[in-house]
Amino acid sequence: MSTTEAPSRAALTGRELSQVDCQWRAANYLAAGQIYLMDNPLLREPLTPGHVKPRLLGHWGTSPGLTFVYAHLNRAIVAHDLDAIFVTGPGHGGPALLAHTWLEGSYPELTPDVTQDVAGMRTLFREFSFPGGVPSHVAPVVPGSIHEGGELGYSLAHAYGAAFDNPDLLVACVIGDGEAETGPLAASWHANKFLDPVHDGAVLPVLHLNGYKIANPTVLSRIPRDELDDLLRGYGYRPYHVEGSDPATMHQAMAATLDDVVAEIRDIQAAARSGAATGRPRWPVIVLRSPKGWTGPSEVDGVPVEGTWRAHQVPLPAVRENPDHLAALERWLRSYRPEELFDADGRPTPEVTALIPSGTRRMGASPHANGGALLRPLDLPDPRDHAPRVTEPGTSVHEPTRVLGRYLREVAERSAGRRNFRLFGPDETASNRLDAVYQATGKGWQAAIEPVDEHLSRDGRVLEVLSEHLCQGWLEGYLLTGRHGLFSCYEAFVHIVDSMVNQHIKWLRSSRDIPWRRPVASLNYLLTSHVWRQDHNGFSHQDPGFIDHVANKSSEVVRVYLPPDTNTLLTVADHCLRSRDYVNVIVAGKNDTPDWLDAEQAALHCARGAGIWEWASTHPGHEPDVVLACAGDAPTLEVLAAVTLLREHLPELAVRVVNVVDLMRLQPDTEHPHGMTDREFDALFTRDRPVIFAYHGYPWLIHRLAYRRANHAGLHVRGYKERGTTTTPFDMLVLNDMDRFQLVIDVIDRVPGLLRTAGTTRQAMADARTRHRRWIREHGEDLPEVREWRWTR
């Protein structure tokens, strides 16, 4: 259609109009009841202060708009036989979705104590925002949800992630106009340039303009309508407007608009799937403009409420103390005429449920919103088939992520039929050496393609966009609807999604306590181009702190891996792609790295998570004088280089080398499922010998993980301490005192007696650091003895 106006025709018969209005009124009654009532759910007796919750928590303002959209989507699902899910963007929209899932029966089916009768309604009301109850936002406990509104900005990215490779699914996404002001949401509008109408489903954004945030007007509600239209058209959408406050008029307009939108979506998909259209389609978007707090109190204490910011949370805040507020609440609730909506037993009447879908067509019962129910294991190759052959430690070198790219290429090949695996990244797949995947699938792209472009493909399953927010949101939506994926990113810039991973970890942690939530594929990060090889880009690109951020989160969910070479990376990646309900962080280099372990040794070492490398230790079988520990590829290299120096200069010294690949092994077994018992820890690190630990990230984390151990006082950690610049790779290590020469100095300083006997060696190591600084400033590259160093037994 060329106009953005809502159709003027009457899409609903008189009976249908009554039915959709009854469903909407019932949902509004239930939403308001959840905020206010703990008893007398059907107002069978006059309302008293004792029926009202002592603490009024919840958000009414957005709820009637959400119930309106949900009711009309229900009607469209029935009318057009749609398979749809509902993504709730506005924060704290829980009352609306709990109301509708109770009406459709999906919530009572999954939560037996919330029965679909008066007793269950009382429980529904009482448990909302109540101690021991359910949150005020659309949390995992809400059937049909894949998106928690605890933080704004990610709904549309989640919606597109759910639609990728789901060709028959319609994802309706309501975007609050406050949420629309966030950066991630603004970037998410561009996701339509990546949605393939042949292999993907459809996303229907519904931009809900109710005018206000908590205390201020919203930007998009206050700009002229033609300017908003220009904005949405500029993003590549075709806007449809539904606006007003009269329920009957709005019902007809919304129904007619949804009929047109569904027809348009089906035409787009049919044309693309038949080959009749090959260009990028202009997908529809609905702009719904309705009053904030619609159908609630119009005025309270002499000031306007409905249609203002005052309706945002609890319109009547003093119901228990103020008789006028109590009377106004009763008038408000009775205005929905609950006696017409619920029978004597408290069940929804046939008029209410007439336009509610059945079975899995109910949005709260869609298996797409409980992705573990649809999840099928990936057909993964054997990592040994891609493993470099290692005859002796350190005699060969490979780029770990380049080898991993060949493994992922085979994963992409094997998953081509099911289309249940995708690789996500912010314009860095080739930079991160994973470009072998392009031999199996291209980069998804629906915009213009020029002759100079490489690997762009309408149906590609690699998604690259220069927004870490979008990559994360797409992957989360993809995983939560039952598929698998990997997010590769420069280590320093993954911090952009710190708050997003918070929410996903909380989602997974909460889901574990919900019996009907099925496990989903883990969210896998590959962080490369890491701190120790960002010497060329400089200080701004040097930050290993994402590990610290994640390590603070739920131990049931979080895993951190630091593979020291190519074969351990292959083993870890294979494990992570097979895992469920975790957030796995893998940190690995992309530059030439010595191969320390063959495939079998790597598998065994990764299974242990941490272990003694006897082949690298001196005087194996003897009690060590010192333990040199390492976690990460660069620290491992420096520790082994330090061992060769100690072997040369202090041949009688017994050195034990311990490598840690699973960082959470350092925690006690009482704090993390992967943690070591004290006996295991002491067997590796001893109870009383100095431990010099070279660690990939900030050293304080190792101390925090190991602070309860018997030998914590003997633990000395070297790592990144915010010393960075544009320099040589080895100078980065020197700047942060994690180089091989400093590690030898640390050994001399901490092994009893060595300061008296090894002063000459200590001086030689200090001199080497001085010589290094002079050399790089004169020659612009590292010392030959560093560049040409190779491990020898």
Task: Please outline the helices and strands.
Blueprint: H1 14-36, H2 63-80, E1 84-88, H3 94-104, H4 106-110, H5 118-127, H6 155-163, E2 170-176, H7 183-188, E3 202-209, H8 219-222, H9 225-234, E4 237-243, H10 247-274, E5 283-289, E6 299-300, E7 303-304, H11 323-334, H12 338-341, H13 350-353, E8 397-398, H14 400-414, E9 421-425, E10 443-444, E11 456-457, E12 462-464, H15 468-480, E13 484-490, H16 498-511, E14 523-528, H17 546-551, E15 558-561, H18 566-578, E16 583-587, E17 593-594, H19 599-608, E18 610-612, E19 626-631, H20 633-649, E20 655-660, H21 678-685, E21 691-695, H22 700-706, E22 715-718, H23 729-735, H24 740-750, H25 754-757, H26 759-779, H27 784-787
Parallel strand pairs: 1-2, 2-3, 3-5, 4-5, 9-12, 9-13, 10-11, 13-14, 14-16, 15-16, 19-20, 19-21, 21-22
Antiparallel strand pairs: 6-7, 8-17, 18-20
Helix pairs in contact: 1-2, 1-3, 1-5, 2-3, 2-10, 6-15, 14-18, 18-19, 20-24, 24-26
Keywords: Lyase, Thiamine pyrophosphate
InterPro entries: Phosphoketolase, THDP-binding, Transketo_C/PFOR_II, Xul5P/Fru6P_PKetolase, Xul5P/Fru6P_PKetolase_C, Xul5P/Fru6P_PKetolase_CS, Xul5P/Fru6P_PKetolase_N, Xul5P/Fru6P_PKetolase_ThDP_BS
EC number: 4.1.2.-
